[in-house]
């Protein structure tokens, strides 16, 4: 799934504002962090012995508690954070979008109408979870998952809010719900903001602080993403096998979804993009209902979701499994740009560095193919950016100015789209940043022309 240039630069501006405002707020307490990690490891060992029958990939028991502790380190004493389960919908999402991912990151509870209140006192963190009837779990289960012992009904949250505000002059809210676009706020946050200002509380944004935490994944989170990737790869292979002249895009979508269901995955991380011919050149094409003519390329950009963790992989291939010469030319160029960009992924690099590498290769290639006559024309054929972070969302929350660090997961997805030739190609893999470079998490899905052709002919 791709991010347009317009969104990218809005986000760039927002990141800049954040960096400037964060300069004064240095965070401390490294020893405290180590102590907490040691404590949670001991607890984890005890819990692991009682819970061993399932080999299913999951997050550790204290994951959500640890996330709250990390967040508390960045809060001022006396301040309060209120997060809510209502999620902002991006246009590319599937119907069931679930709970807000920051809310989930701190609670582990899928409740789109719940609230969590964290109040930082001098020596403690007061935590209250307001669970709604919409929650997928009951209060005992919610307590077990979240490790929050104070549980209330979401219906009484508004009454409590008055007390919360009278006790805390500073209220942190998620003011930028849609991190990849202009600040979008749900009705809930608008209501909270106006109540807070009526009471004279100072409202601050917590979005970017949470983004910084979420950007670096734990080993277990990476395993969750790998699980989503493995299923997505199976689905894409099925689509390749199903493709043939004049097949309808809808049948390919069905083949993908059926494969997910066979693997007991019932959710996708965004609505699938399966476009053949002219649709392969369309930005975020999601109709998926055209008969694909002979000799067409198909752009197949899809992702499974595993317990909210997303995969996001694109392969492009000819409908009948045989590339034409022209398709080969464009494909080889996109693949070259992708491989060069992936090779540059390592700690310290920024998304801007990656963008520069991708655009340099793509524009040099198109100049050579004489499709463009100066570099600036590249953007007529490449209207999006090459990377975004991946995690609890397919377009995961991130701060663009923050250089890559080990544990971050990003996509690399250059593309070339030539509407006049009804020819689009995008290749996207999911990449983990490691200490020394990177690991392509979706490497099990081949992408050379030879491999695609031989697989589709098998
Ligand atoms: Mn993507």
From TrEMBL:
UniProtKB keywords: Aminopeptidase, Hydrolase, Manganese, Metal-binding, Protease, Signal
Residue span, Aminopeptidase P N-terminal domain: 59-182
Cofactor(s) the protein requires to work: Mn(2+)
Keyword Protease: yes
Secretion signal, residue range per the UniProt entry: 1-22
The reaction(s) this protein catalyses: Release of any N-terminal amino acid, including proline, that is linked to proline, even from a dipeptide or tripeptide
SMART domains, alphabetized: AMP_N
InterPro entries given in the database record: Aminopep_P_N, Creatin/AminoP/Spt16_N, Creatinase/aminopeptidase-like, Pept_M24, X-Pro_dipept-like
Annotated family: Belongs to the peptidase M24B family.
PANTHER family xrefs: XAA-PRO AMINOPEPTIDASE 3
Protein name: Xaa-Pro aminopeptidase
